[in-house]
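Sharing a chain and its predicted structure for anyone who wants a worked example. Both blocks are below, sequence first, tokens second.
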Amino acid sequence: MRGKACSAEFMRKFSTLVDSGMSSSELEDLLCMKRNEINQLERALAVRKRLGGVLIIQHLQPSHCMVLAALPEEKQLEMARQAEEGKWTVKELKARIQEQRQQEADRPMVEGQFHAIVIDPPWPMEKIERDVRPNQDVMDYPTMSLEQIRGWWARKDIPAHIPTAGAHIYLWTTHRFLPEALNCFNIWGVNYQCLLTWVKNVGMTPYSWMYSTEHCLFGRIGALPLVKNGERLDFSAPVTRHSEKPNKFYELVEKVSPNPWVDMFARKLRPGWEAWGNEV
């Protein structure tokens, strides 16, 4: 994000434009900014307005709100209050969030056995994301190295949570780490079958192609059949909070995979699902 967009004066002008009813497309043209930058500013503005209703803000700047926007709403106020009282810099705010999440990341695995396991690991942050989303380097989880992700399956003893009938494994990955995701399946003993594709309403264009899709490997342990055949491998849904997967994906899993279901590295609780992660 360009420096001017982090200034209080710019955010005041941006707020006026938003309040006037301008669409994201119109804001793109007027401000000569990319859609993902406009979306990021809109999220930061929403955070600022939300906090302003319950907290006297004297220290926090727009750049703080951009960082806070990566958190779920229920955690934004708690962290904002600490940052305001401690007069934290943006760098200190990022460090405190990462420190807190790192402490939470080693929580025990949920109990039970599951026919469907959704895994959305925090792949190492890619350079193109740092270039395009420099204010989003506080991720929903502390990022993990490739070695940590490969070993995560054994550390959490996932095989002990797979019933005799088998399980369906869903592994989210980025474009860059698609080969590594396939390697993880091989290491974990998962039989790869196909690739699900999320078609987004926005995308990044760092160098050549617009990165407007995200992918999820589907594989099996054992021969557990699908509950319903013939569902499409692609689905369209808008982007919400960074890294959060759309409801359409979970609805698809519920259609084709028998329960119990578990969501690993979950961003929020879902009815009927077990969840493991530092935000649930």
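Comments welcome. The longest strand covers residues 191-204.
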